[in-house]
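Handout, page 2. Input:
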Amino acid sequence: MDVISILAQTPEEIPQWLKDYQPGDRVSFNDFMSSRIGYYPGSGYDGCLVKTCNKAQCVHCFIQVDYGIAERELKSEAEEFNAFKGYHVIGRVDWKEQDLAPHGQYAPNFNMDEREMADARRFVREDVNPYCFMEVYERNADKGNDWGAERFAVTFLFADGIATYYQLFCRVFGRAPWIFLLQDHSFGGNYAGFGRGQLMDRVMKANDCWPENVLCADNTEIWDGYEKVEAAPVIGGMHRNSRFLYQRK
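Output:
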């Protein structure tokens, strides 16, 4: 068994809004968030989470967050690094901050040390215009159901992946993503880590907000409370890391 085969055992029906979507339709962020979500902080150009879950047809809506990628770079590198081959974009929706957090941002309820607070301000690229947009992808006519879902949607967000997790999942919507791609990037410009004992872990503990499934890279420590699924890993990322499946106990 491999990770995709395991995930395929819990399929998801395509969300109704996505099934009915027509180019030019206005979609609310609430609609996007109404079904399972795959979340990948520090995603860069990596489409491994989309590729894995789309093949398994277990998730149709994804959020990829990174504060180091300009939109022009994201689009120019997509074909080489992302996993959207066999699909084409049929629509785009641009969102503003109030669409994601209509009541404004919540004050942190977790502790950050002085270095983290200083680095959080320093690491964000100041030469990049912030963006938040969703693209709807449709399977090409020459591909069948064994290739992947008929449609999926990805929100690309220029933001801090840890702060975004806290605001969206812990506070605004009050539920964790169904699956999370967990990888620390040693030289990737992240001001704080995602793995065990790092800031993301502390945010989850403070809010008791844990994803059910985690794809954890072989260079990252999984959080407490998860057990490894005996399955061949998926491979992804710039350095072709193995990502193993873990599930919440």
